[in-house]
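Example 3.2
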Amino acid sequence: MHQQKRIILISLITGIVLMMAKFLAYFLTSSNFILTDAAESIVNVVASSFAFFSIYLSALPRDENHPYGHGKVEYFSVFLEGGLIVIAGILIVVKSVYSLLEPHAINDILTGAIIIGITGAVNGGLGYYMIQQGKKLPSITLEADGRHLLTDMVTSLGLVVGLLLIYFTDILWLDSGLSIVVGLYIVFTGYKLLRKSIAGLMDETDFGVVTNILKVLNDKRKEEWIDIHNLRAQKYGSELHIDCHLTLPNYFDLNRVHEEVSLVDKMINTEAGVKTELFIHTDPCLPECCHYCSMPNCPIRFEPKRVQIEWTLDKVMRNKKHFDL
């Protein structure tokens, strides 16, 4: 968590400096187009401040009131960021529509374009770095903040092109017209962040993470692991929680069962690339399992193995053994 805090703090300080630069560009030019970027920078600063607090809170140990930890607060951070982006985008569109009806002169366009271009380049580099670190750690807050900064870079690039177009054509209504387009793009970006945060808060399955875990299980599958079903996954910040049922030979004693469960736990945490807490319920095998069981020298086998069942999403997420397929 120390590394996440450091990255968010860098993002916060950078955001404050760039926000001041963008408002300077707006006061120099009186351009609504530049104001769209400056207004979004306020969102960057507020969101980074809350993200810093959410990462601190998510790092707190579990307690009686939060038995799964405090990781869910990261989704609230993303929700706040997405909501602020949507509000900023709507306000930009409203102001730009008004200015479209009442156009005004724009000053020092080239100076404004240079300032915005520099801020966009800084945001782009920082955003790319934060996305990579967000995937590596992993942290939805860092990744969301990084994607927001990349959006800001795209907005700034559009700003520079638009300002140069206004400079060379002297068409004043382009300032407000292009601002409306950028404002709608900002609203769409905020919507995507809101959608992602709500999915996390509602414990929506992250199919990408589950698919990666299933690949590890299939690649490292042991003959003793006859069947996996009723698999459910939940994200709590950077930690993943998995519940599943594991079918083992019914003649294994408790020590052997514990050993196999521990192997599954260790394998996923080592190979899947995400810190995972597993709650594995073990089921004894039944005669109906024999036709897909690979256990050699089984003393209770009723029939030879006939099929190889791959553990796929549609199979392992069902609450029934594979012989019912």
